[in-house]
Amino acid sequence: MSATEPTALPQSHPGRFGAWMRWQFVALLLWLVVFVIGLQGLYEHLAYRDLQTDLGSYYPWGLWVASYIWFIGLSAGAFLLSTLVYVFRIRRLERVAPLALFVALVTLFMALLMIWFDIGHMERFWEVYLRPNFHSAMAWMVWLYTAYLLLLLAETYLVLRPRLVARADAAGLSGSLACLLVGRRTPLTEGERSRSQRAILILGALGIPLAIAFHGGVGALFATVDARAVWNSSLYPILFLVGAMFSGGALFTGLVAFVWPKRDEDWRSIVRLLGSITLGLLLIEALLDWADLSVPLWYHIGIDVSALSYMLTGPFWWVFWIVQVGLGLAVPAGLLVWGRRSPQVVGAAGLLAAVVFLGARLDLVLPGFVSPELVGLPNSYHDGRLLYHYFPTWSEWELVAFVIAVGVALFVIGIRLLPILSGTDTPALQTSEGVQR
After folding, report:
1. Angle formed by the axes of helices 265-298 and 236-259, to 10°?
2. Residue 187 carries which DSSP code?
3. What counts of helices (H) and strands (E) characterise the chain?
4. What is the pTM of this model?
5. Does the pLDDT value for residue 195 go beyond 60?
6. Helix or strand or coil: residue 371?
């Protein structure tokens, strides 16, 4: 089936096809609303920079940094799922593995775009390449992201190459793009397929420590900020990594459930397997969250207790209890357990967990700024930008909406023009002689 075809719904069933078209229209209308709102946020950011935000000297990080961590975790999680096929040879997920790579690529772009907007001088981002300070964890993050981006592009191309060659003769924009990308119309030889297989295996294997390094490194970046006691924990790199696998796996589960065109028994089996993986990661995430919170709060000892108490019982207690614990953990767990036989229920649980995981990232970033570094500091200076209070402004949400709208557009264009959802002719699980394992 071509990726340019709408779905597996045939026009011979006019009722079902009409309902599908109505959902397409509603989705397009919703995207346009989000995009227009996002354009307003982009204009306000470019024109006024941080003047339209609630950020200040005491709260330099807010919604944008939390969103960046959220997006980059989605990317790392989706990529690590793809390695189950391209490195560990789990054939049951072979059909959907190219989609995992593409999701990782799109969400990585969203993360980089989000953090680019957050830096003070956006035009100076190239300085970290020309004059890097490798004693800085942040400089290492930029270089690791760059290596990860190049690896993702190369692996995605190699995985899609046989499909692109097969589509190069097709009419329309997708065929022209395929021809442009591969520059040939003749099928790959067995030797070319074997070399592609080895290259994909090598890239996937290299990507595992790279994904662990850059997202675990984000956790290490927080953990090494000694002035913020609530972050200064060796558990943070693990929390970031497990959170990435959980949120990325949840997002991928939802996309396979609702975007995949061929709804056969094999698809249902794949969704159930992804749901089981997501449920396992959810339980590990809940266990680590409990360990991170219960130890310092047990005897109420330590300078980070005030920050944790602020998160649990402060003015934004509902973000933790309702959004993070309720909608992000309890509801998806219930759906994954009692609705595991329904692909739609499993997919809804995955999408819900992935979307509201932004609340978990807000609860990770914001409590670090609750306690003053110096006793009496809030009473020493008085200014509108010197407040120990933060709540994202509408302008901040608008810019996040812009990044989400751009990411959704890239995803839809990609699955329409590239053979991501069609065929299973990836060389990932072939032997050197080209025979399927």
Report:
1. 150
2. P
3. 15, 0
4. 0.89
5. yes
6. coil
